Amino acid sequence: MIDHVQANEYLDIYGPLLTQRQQDILSLYYGDDLSYTEISEELGISRAGVMDAVHRASAQLEKYEQVIGYVQKKHKIIQLCQEKKYNEITNVF
């Protein structure tokens, strides 16, 4: 499973591709750092349901990044800018 920093970045980029319910659960889990139990109590669903939703939606975010690669490209562009290798940016695409 992805770490919290990655998850928040993926959620910012690919979140709209998830259902609203998935977005809400991931936002509570990764953004607000709530536990499965806390989320289940807040949303009125089972702890197992929350755990399943987090794992499935996180896997979807990872799949989106594997296919699209936006975050990886963004990080590469930032790295090239920091290294002042501006002419290499077009090679990222």
Automatic annotation (TrEMBL):
Superkingdom of the organism of origin: Bacteria
A Pfam family: UPF0122
Entry keyword Repeat: no
Residues spanning the membrane: none
KW DNA-binding (keyword) present: yes
Coiled coil location: none
This protein's UniProt keywords: DNA-binding
GO molecular function, one term: DNA binding
PANTHER family from the UniProt entry: UPF0122 PROTEIN CBO2450/CLC_2298, UPF0122 PROTEIN YLXM
Described function: Might take part in the signal recognition particle (SRP) pathway. This is inferred from the conservation of its genetic proximity to ftsY/ffh. May be a regulatory protein.
Family: Belongs to the UPF0122 family.
Protein name according to UniProt: DNA-binding protein
